[in-house]
Amino acid sequence: MTNEKIGQRIKQIRCAKGLSQEELARRVDLSRTAITKIESGSQDVRFLELEK
Fold first, then answer.
1. Separation of CA 10 from chain center
2. Which pTM was predicted?
3. Per CATH, the architecture of 3-43 is what?
4. CB neighbours (10 Å) of residue 13?
5. What is the domain partition of the chain in residue ranges?
6. What is the pLDDT along the chain (52 residues), one digit of tens a residue?
């Protein structure tokens, strides 16, 4: 699965749960900027981050 597809899926799940990027970032201990980059596919997602 590509970074772009992973990012799209993360965004889809986040939105379905009614979470903002800020709230998701807080819950997984990442910055909001990192969430933005992950969702856009411009940042690699490590397996350990996906587990959070």
1. 5
2. 0.81
3. Orthogonal Bundle (1.10)
4. 11
5. 3-43
6. 788 999 999 999 999 999 999 999 999 999 999 999 999 998 887 754 555 5
Q: What is the pLDDT of residue 36?
A: 95
What CA–CA distances, in Å, run from 18 to 12, 21, 23?
Answer: 10, 10, 10
Q: Give the pLDDT score at 51.
A: 55
How far apart are alpha carbons 2 and 16 in whole angstroms?
21
Question: Residue with structure tokens 């970074």?
Answer: 3
How is the chain classified by DSSP, letter by letter? --HHHHHHHHHHHHHHTT--HHHHHHHHT--HHHHHHHHHT-S---HHHHH-
